[in-house]
Design goal:
alpha+beta; Jelly Rolls; 2 domains; 3-stranded antiparallel beta sheet; 10 helices; about 20% strand; globular
Length: about 270
Amino acid sequence: MVFQLHIPNYPLNQFIESFIYYRDYNPVHSIDRFLPDGNVNIVIDLTDYPKYIYDNETLKEIQSCRHVWFSGMRNKFITIPSGRDSEMFIINFLKGRSYPFVQMPLYELTDCVVDGELVLTNEIMDMREMILEIPSISNKFLVAENFLLKKFQNRLIINPFIEFAVNTIVQSPNQFSIEQISNKVGYSQKHLIKLFKDNVGLTPKGFLKVIRFQKAIEEIAAAKEPSWTGIAYESGYYDQAHFINDFKSFSGFTPQQYLQRQYEHLNYIAVG
């Protein structure tokens, strides 16, 4: 397998966590369940055959994706190909930082996978063609970085209120309520909810639930013999019942079932 990760330079690194390129990945399974992780991505497929989204229950194909697609914020799991025989270039945005690149409220893209041209205009296909033409992986990263900087440089402005609220939730999901956060930024809860929906894709409460779920996954991975009560507490849940209920909602499995199925990629579960 060929896998390379690149962190862009300033100012893109204030919005984009990483570029990832991979090919020749050949897992034994062909279908993954991808869990909500609080991130937004642009996926550039460097092959010419379609990839599919599957029905979560029947695993039948329900949507075809080709060349470039935008994967919005998620509060539900999605069933996707495992990446076998793919060649992919992925743009991973920092949590709560994709809004300068999107020309519509992000809540309109929540739990959606849509053609990249609809979100980023037809120019994103030009970037794909340039990436395809260059054999060097490091130069592929450079092409993407230059393209995005040229196109979006005037929009790369951080909203300090969103920044504070997102960072507070990510860093301390078990310490602050939404009411406390809205008081700290000086906005009403109603206005903070609108800001979050437009710029993050979820309400603050919805985003907090995803981050708590992610914290729980990390705690499970780190524990040799997990204590579900302890993990619930460390992840910010009021009790074990709320923890298990949220976990099943986000993954389709109980924590124990997830533990038995997890592999090296914590947010992916082999299902087919």
